[in-house]
Design brief:
heterodimer; A: mainly alpha; two-stranded antiparallel sheet; 57% helix; elongated; B: mainly alpha; 9 helices; 0% strand; globular
Chain lengths: 430, 197
């Protein structure tokens, strides 16, 4: 019986239209992002990456889902059948449940093609599922259901013609204002949930967030449909109990993405995957599909380094920690997050990556910089093939003499490792 | 004011619409002032100059049809002049309060964008009212505007001028052309057919 009513709700109510709107809107949003040559995004070839894309689409889809919820929530009064429905034997909460269930089916059905479009371009390059992605997937679904519940409750409590569009705009504003104001309250907004390459949700925070969304949904639906609305207080208290610790979590940049309090480095994603042949180039497992392209970019730099050197991608765990631990013969590839075009498995700007890697390679982690050190840095960053142009007379000479250049670079790296100022003076006197 | 006109305005919810648009304009001005005082990310005013006109035309949509469209259509003489008056009045209500709010809180450049967006979105609502009921004619405008807000165009040239016209600067011709064409097409369709059943 309920299944039949739900099917009717889906086909003849707002369900089918909502599913189409969610699917078309989400796909269009993805295509616009995809078509934009300037757009970069987190690497999508992992479970959390793909789900982050879906959550971001919530800035568009969330308000539309809320509007649909409000439209359905207010329909009894709008169609002037509310008095008529008070005499039917089926209790209101059962009718509401089937209406909401039809909308949930619609949202889910609409999201599946969006998810497919986000995942399809990078799926062949998927090298790692991603830690705790099912929890992130649950939060993504709860994001949309929260919007739906907000709309439904608003439509039921304020059953006016204008409720639906106003609710949509309110949900949009609630989603973007914390972004503009950089407020920690933004951590309660589902569309801005954190994500990042090589990171996974902290279990405790993820569970707290799931309970926060669930409690909100139950409170709102109870408020909308229960005979005794006071029952909504119970889940509301639970929601507040979850919201307080979540919204007061420190909101800061952790070196790779925002909201370090929500995420932690994912040890499996950060394990190194290296080329079989020498000289060895390593990237983290979450970026494994980029290894051939990265190898092509960094091998010319690697050829300039002392024999036996290798190069590995580095994840910045703590930006305040200063100098990274020194590993003999190891040069660093900057973390690869955001270096692909959105929904792509290719490096976006190879020259940029090479330049950054060379600059990182020649960075001397010394407390005070002398003029000699600065000049040596300028020379070093312009003599590696593929960089430049070399303007310093020493750089011009070294650029033409491979043996001398490689010896100079080896001496520079030794000086930089020990912060040896006399050695820097010697390097710029040659 | 004649009794007939007063009742007509009452039936179309004119006072409530004017009040709602005025409240939306005040909200625009207040939020602009609040953002202006803070140290926020650049581009904070785009949602205001886009969502404000959207709210205004959403409220105006209510006035495009009476309680019984079928009854109105059954009259011996259709009244395009009355519909034209509705379009003009709706245009004034949708444009003037948001523009005043823009002038008061955002400056001339943003006000030009507010006026253009009000014109274009009203055209979209008028077009929609011909194919769907007036009570739902705000839906395409809402869907489109939220889409543009969620995916703001990053370029001020090429295809972005066309699909993202509400979020382009006010001194570019193409977005203005689109807005005016939408209004003209919407008004023509509304004058000819009236609201959908």
């Amino acid at each position: 019986m309920s299944a039949r009513i739900m099917t009717l709700e889906f086909r003849r109510g707002t369900g089918a239209l909502l599913a189409a709107v969610v699917a078309v809107g989400g796909i269009l949003l993805s295509l616009i992002t995809w078509a934009n040559p300037d757009s970069t995004g987190p690497w999508s070839a992992s479970g959390p990456g793909i789900l982050s894309g879906l959550m971001t689409a919530g800035i568009l889809l969330g308000p539309l889902v809320a509007a649909a919820g409000a439209w359905v929530g207010s329909r009894e009064r709008r169609l002037r059948v509310d008095e008529l429905l008070t005499v039917v034997s089926r209790p209101r909460w059962q009718r509401d449940l089937t209406a909401v269930a039809a909308l949930v089916v619609a949202v889910t059905a609409g999201l599946i093609p969006v998810l497919a479009v986000i995942a399809a371009p990078v799926f062949p390059a998927l090298s790692y599922g991603g830690g705790r992605w099912p929890l992130l997937g649950l939060l993504a679904l709860l994001e949309f259901l929260t919007c739906l519940s907000i709309g439904f409750a608003a439509g039921r409590l304020l059953p006016y013609r204008w409720t639906a569009p106003i609710v949509a705009l309110v949900v949009y504003v609630a989603a973007v204002v914390p972004v503009y104001t950089k407020s920690s309250i933004g951590q309660l907004v589902p569309m801005t949930l954190p994500g990042g390459d090589g990171q996974r949700l902290r279990l405790t925070v993820g569970v707290q967030a799931a309970v926060w969304f669930l409690a909100c949904i139950v409170a709102l639906l109870t408020l909308a449909g229960a005979r005794r609305r006071a029952w909504a207080l119970l889940p509301a208290v639970l929601a507040v109990a979850m919201a307080v610790p979540l919204s007061t979590l420190p909101y800061r940049f952790n070196g790779n993405s925002y909201t370090a309090a929500w995420t932690e480095p994912d040890p499996v994603a950060l394990t190194l995957v290296c080329t079989d042949d020498a000289p060895k180039v390593c990237v983290q497992r979450v970026h494994e599909a980029l290894l051939p392209a990265v190898t092509q970019v960094v091998r010319p730099v690697l050829a300039e380094l002392p024999a036996g050197s290798f190069v590995a991608e580095e994840f910045i765990v703590d930006p305040d920690a200063g100098r990274p631990p020194y590993v003999p013969g190891r040069a660093t590839i900057p973390f690869l997050e955001g270096r692909t075009a959105s929904f792509s498995a290719d490096l976006r700007d190879r020259e940029w990556l090479r330049t950054q890697m060379v600059e990182y390679l020649f960075t001397a982690w010394c407390t005070a910089q002398t003029p000699s050190m600065e000049r040596a840095w300028n020379i070093g960053t312009t003599i590696v093939p593929g960089t430049g142009p070399a303007t310093d007379p020493i750089a011009t000479r070294l650029a033409a003499d491979t043996q001398a250049r490689r010896a100079w670079i080896a001496a520079y790296l030794d000086a930089a490792r020990d912060c040896d100022r006399p050695a820097f003076d010697e390097l710029v006197r040659q | 004011m004649s009794v007939g006109l007063r009742r007509h305005l009452e039936a179309r919810g004119a006072a409530a619409t004017l009040l709602a648009v005025s409240v939306a304009a005040l909200a625009m001005a207040y939020s602009a002032g609040w953002f202006k005082d803070g140290d926020f990310a650049p581009g904070w005013w785009w949602p205001i100059v886009t969502a404000g006109p959207l709210l205004a035309v959403t409220f105006v949509a209510r006035t495009l049809a009476g309680a019984d469209v079928a009854l109105e259509r059954s009259t011996a003489r259709q009244r395009p002049a009355l519909r034209a008056a509705h379009v003009v009045a709706g245009l004034l209500v949708a444009v003037v309060p948001p523009a005043l709010a823009g002038l008061a809180a955002l400056g001339t450049d943003a006000t030009v964008v507010v006026v253009r967006n009000s014109i274009g979105l009203l055209g979209l609502v008028l077009l929609a009212s011909g194919v769907m009921r007036a009570g739902t004619s705000w839906m395409p405008a809402l869907g489109y505007t939220v889409f543009v807000l969620a995916s703001p165009p990053r370029q001020e040239h090429g295809a972005a001028l066309w699909w993202g016209w509400p979020m382009q600067p006010g001194d570019i011709a193409v977005p203005w052309t689109i807005a005016v064409v939408l209004l003209v097409a919407g008004a023509a369709a509304y004058l000819r057919r009236g609201p959908a059943l």
